TrEMBL record:
InterPro entries linked to this entry: Aminotrans_V_dom, Aminotrans_V_PyrdxlP_BS, Cysteine_dSase, PyrdxlP-dep_Trfase, PyrdxlP-dep_Trfase_major, PyrdxlP-dep_Trfase_small
UniProt record similarity statement: Belongs to the class-V pyridoxal-phosphate-dependent aminotransferase family. NifS/IscS subfamily.
Keyword Metal-binding part of the UniProt annotation: yes
Domain Aminotransferase class V: 6-368
GO molecular function, one term: 2 iron, 2 sulfur cluster binding
Organism phylogeny: Bacteria, Pseudomonadati, Bacteroidota, Chitinophagia, Chitinophagales
Organism: Dinghuibacter silviterrae
PROSITE patterns: AA_TRANSFER_CLASS_5
Domain of life, per lineage: Bacteria
The protein's required cofactors: pyridoxal 5'-phosphate
Name of the protein: cysteine desulfurase
Length: 387
């Protein structure tokens, strides 16, 4: 039995896993203690739950639990990493390197840093959506204090050459930060093997609650420090003050734990469904895939359907299919995607794009329905549009 609309927008957000909700519930009511209360059982219970979540999140990315800083989500983690490094390392330099297809949480923070006297290099990407590591090397200056390149793009799923770039950063003694919001919980990440010094993630992208995330901050080889962006009680090793969101953190930990166990089977299952969807829609003709098909998240595809405007199409099929043309944050913006434009797409092709992001609830029946329904809608629209 199909439930409409079929949800194929898991890069925007995911439903909370019922096991995550179950894990969280006691921390709203019975175990409501403040994790910073050290003098009674309510505080100890909360602290114990936070400690477990810290271990679960650390395990997901191969970190040590003491390297996890809980935040309100990836936007905050991105702000803390970028502004925190800029403030701390300012005596050494003011230059940051990032790329044109980062999420707005990174790009807008970089714009803020520029207003504060920083200098930012926005590297281009190739038509596949990837950064050329040689261009990272070429952009390095004596005053470079951070290299920031996302793990996987939210619109296309394209994976960046993280290990090559982190090796360059390490060779130049520059901290390397990656926004792994779309990759964490979906594909294996290991901060040691990947050479990552700072990493942002967010619970609601992997079946945890909204408004909870983390920033990984390396403690050894090398030790990375940051200037906190929220001052107060000195929580989270002084990096992020504020009473901890215990239910949210418990949910984040539980979601991380579930992903760790399901990651490989889900990635295989979803890549088969994604490939079937993609292949079927390509047969419509005048359809092409945006971004690399070899370096890509297993559950994502971004397609442009020539002669179609994606926004009116999406609204016309909204009762049956829930998808988007790009990131949720920019879905109200009529401008064509800056990510696709950076990859060299002309405006009409960028406006003709749809992002499909599959998830844990996606079934073969849903994919069959999506193919049939979308193909009919596109054929209809094309027949009525003036070419
Ligand atoms: C790559 C990337 N970074 C950051 C964010 C922001 O995450 P949050 O919603 O947790 O603030 C998102 C969410 O869309 C994202 O996809």
């Amino acid at each position: 039995m199909l439930h409409l609309p079929v949800y194929l927008d898991h890069n925007a957000t995911t439903p909370c896993d019922p096991a995550v909700v179950d894990a969280m519930l006691p921390y709203f009511t019975k175990n409501f203690g403040n994790a910073a209360s050290r003098t009674h059982a309510f505080g100890w219970a909360a602290e114990e739950a936070v400690d477990l979540a810290r271990e679960q999140v650390a395990r997901l990315i191969g970190a040590d639990p003491t390297e996890i800083v809980f935040t309100s989500g990836a936007t905050e983690s991105d702000n803390l990493a970028l502004k925190g490094i800029f403030d701390k390392y300012r005596p050494k330099g003011n230059h940051l390197i990032t790329c044109a297809t980062e999420h707005k949480a990174v790009l807008d923070t970089c714009k803020h840093i520029e207003k504060m006297g920083g200098s930012v290099t926005y590297l281009p990407v190739d038509p596949q959506g990837r950064v050329d590591p040689a261009q990272v090397t070429a952009a390095i200056r004596p005053e470079t204090i951070l290299i920031c390149i996302m793990y996987a793009n939210n619109e296309t799923g394209v994976l960046q050459p993280i290990r090559e770039i982190s090796a360059i950063a390490r060779a130049h003694n520059i901290p390397f930060f990656t926004d792994a919001t779309q990759a964490a919980g979906k594909i294996p990440i290991d901060v040691q093997e990947d050479g990552i010094d700072l990493l942002a993630l967010s619970a609601h992208k992997f079946y945890g609650p909204k408004g909870t995330g983390a920033l990984y901050v390396r403690r050894r080889n090398p030790r990375i420090t940051l200037t906190p962006q929220l001052d107060g009680g000195g929580h989270e090793r002084n990096f992020r003050s504020g009473t901890l969101n215990v239910p949210g953190i418990v949910g984040l930990g539980k979601a991380a734990d579930i992903c760790l166990h399901l990651m490989y089977t889900e990635a295989n299952r979803l890549s088969v469904l994604r490939d079937h969807l993609e292949k079927s829609l390509l047969t419509l003709g005048d359809v092409f895939v945006n971004g690399s098909t070899t370096h890509r998240l297993p559950h994502v595809t971004n397609l442009s359907f020539r002669y179609i405007e994606s926004q009116p199409l999406l609204l016309s099929i909204a009762k049956e299919l829930a998808l988007s043309s790009g990131s949720a944050c920019t879905s109200a913006n009529p401008e064509p995607s800056y990510v696709l434009k950076a990859m060299g797409l002309p405006d009409p092709d960028a406006r003709a794009s749809l992002r499909f992001s599959l998830g844990r609830s996606t079934t073969p029946e849903e994919i069959t329905y999506a193919i049939t329904h979308l193909s009919a809608a596109i054929t209809r629209l094309r027949a009525t549009s003036i070419r």
